[in-house]
Structure formats: C-alpha cells, structure tokens
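Troubleshooting log. The previous structure file for this entry was overwritten by mistake, so regenerating from the original sequence record. Sequence copied from the archived sheet and checked twice against the printout by T.R.
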Amino acid sequence: MNYNLITILGPTAVGKTHLAAQLANRFNGEIISADSRQVYRGMDIGTGKDISDYNIDGKIIPHHLIDVIEPKEEFNLFLFNKFFYESFSNLTSRGKIPFLVGGTGLYLHSILNSYELNKVDFDEARFKELDEYEIADLRERLKKINPSLHNTTDLLVKERVIRAIIIAEKENDKELLNKSNVNSFTIGIRLDREEIKKRITVRLQHRVQNGMIEEIKKLIDEGISFERLNLFGLEYKFIGKYLSGELSYNDMYQKLNSAIHSFAKRQMTWFRKMEREGTIIHWIEGPSYREADQIISQHFS
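Regenerated output below.
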C-alpha cells in the first residue's frame, strides 16, 4: 500500500516526540505536531514543548504547528486542519515524509478520517470549549467573526450565541482548506498503566521544580485571564487556581497529578474508538526505536 504519512500517537508521557524525531531522522521526514496546546507561544513547560526531544545527534529535526499563535488567540479544529494540510503539502512537495505526532485525539481523528468539518464530533467539542466563557465575551467574539450580524436574537441566549459562533466559524473557514489525500501508516505507543502513572508523576515533579509555575505567572502578568487559563486545562487550569488563591499548593499538585492520569486514560479511550471505527494502529510496547523502525521498513512504501 502506498502511504504518504506516518502517524505516531499515544497517551501523554510515553515518549512519542523523541521516538518520532528518531524515525524522522531515519526516514528523511519532518514532524507535524498534533497537540492542541503546543501551538501557543510562551506555553512551553506546561505543554511539554521540550525542543531537546527533536535533537538527534546534534541535529534538530524540523517540526511544524508549534509556536504558531499567541495565547490570547483562538485555535480550533479548522485551523489545525488548515495548518496541517499546508505543512503536509509543503513537506511532500520537497520529498519529505510527514510524521504526524501527538495525543490530541480529535485532531488526529480529523486527519486520519478526512473530516469534512461539519461533523457532530467537532460541534460538540467546540460547544463545550465555548461554554466555559461568559456570555458577554461570547457576544463580542460573535460580533468580531460576523460584524454584519442581522439576527440579534442570537445574542440573547448563551446557547444560541455559541451555535452562531460555530456556524460563523465554519462559514469563515470553509474556503481555507486545500485538502490533500492522506493515507497514513499509524503506530501507537502504549505502556502499562502503572508505568504511565509513574512517568506522569515524575515528569510533573520535574516541571513544577523547573519553572512551570513561573511560566504560568508570566502569562498572567502578560494579560492572560484565569478564565482563559482554565480553558487551556490541566497544568494551566490547576496552577491558575493556585495562583489565584483558590487552591493551596498541595491541593493543586494532587488534583493536577490525578487529572493528568485521567487525561491519559481518556486518550486511550479515543484511540480505541478510532480503532473501532476502522483506523489501523500498529501498537508497540514503549517508545522502541528498533521495533518502530522495523515495522515502518516492512510496511511503508
């Protein structure tokens, strides 16, 4: 089968990025990130944006869809698809193999299943995201997206404002996509659940001790609201609550550690759902370069 994309997926803390960088170095590839938070500039430690993962024998493997917008800006599934297909076309035109790497299930699913971007999956996810905002903020957002709004009744009820925003986003973005035909060879990394939990806890300790709280405080000083931090989830949500005085340090740490464990579990649920819907995932135990190299060499052409 003629594949034109290699996807490396798996839950958080299993070592996806470094393995993908090793494989990209081996197979003349570059990496396209499928992480919903690493797109934001200045959100480095909390999102696990460790550039050293891309360093293979002193060579930094080129990577895309990282540091593409400011934290105050909105990023959504439409923009991810737009940026992905732009990067994909650029890489293939240069004879490079694109490696799609990450753990954001909805983003991965949208590419591997070639979303037309009017699916219920997206509507529900976007609705939940927008529902976290106050209605006044949503009204302003809708007016910016659709300055010529005629139906002002859309501004009276929060649910209608959200629906109007989703519709307007689709109208604004539908002409932006220049989709390519994608046929992915997909590798999944899995580990024993207890091993993942141990890795998450060790990684969290390291990040807290090496500037993650200071990074989030800097975002606040630059004008990012606690409400906005809450939308970023996990590290930004719980450390934001700590910095606002809503949680003690110990409560923040315990709740955050538990939330990341739950997140990893939800990621695996996403991947199992993808398999049930027909996505073929070649699972390997841990980030084994040897095993992944062997599988790709046998199947990728």
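Residues 118-173 form one domain. Archived copy saved in two places this time.
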